[in-house]
């Protein structure tokens, strides 16, 4: 299982816990965007958008570069991929548990008399 240090994992899930930041990340899948571009769908100030960008940046979900007075952001998918691996561990755990349950239910059904129609 991939182990992320708790602060990094916490930062990723904190960043993803906000709908505005998730939308910003989705917008960045289309390519590099300025902070102003990221703010536009929300009619928020550049200062408010910048706070969201900083959270995403600290979580390692985006990279920012300055070009003149413009701050340009681009998606950094590494942290998302690592978080996905962490989640996948639990997906595999629950899938295996459900497979065991299915096997038990099938075994129980097979042991029922064929004329039994009661549930």
Automatic annotation (TrEMBL):
Superkingdom of the organism of origin: Bacteria
Any Pfam family: HTH_20
SMART domains tied to this protein: HTH_ARSR (SM00418)
Annotated CDD domains: HTH_ARSR (cd00090)
Domain HTH arsR-type residues, every copy: 1-95
Designated name of the protein: ArsR/SmtB family transcription factor
The species this protein was found in: Phenylobacterium conjunctum
């Amino acid at each position: 299982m991939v182990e992320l240090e708790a602060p990094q994992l916490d930062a990723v899930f904190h960043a993803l816990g906000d709908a505005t930041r998730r939308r910003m990340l989705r917008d960045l899948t289309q390519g590099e965007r300025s902070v102003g571009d990221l703010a536009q769908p929300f009619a928020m100030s550049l200062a408010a958008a910048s706070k969201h960008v900083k959270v995403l940046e600290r979580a390692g979900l985006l990279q920012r570069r300055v070009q003149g007075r413009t701050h340009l952001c681009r998606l950094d998918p590494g942290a998302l991929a690592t978080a996905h691996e962490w989640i996948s561990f639990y997906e595999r755990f629950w899938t295996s548990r459900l497979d065991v349950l299915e096997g038990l239910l099938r075994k129980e059904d097979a042991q029922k008399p064929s004329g039994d129609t009661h549930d």
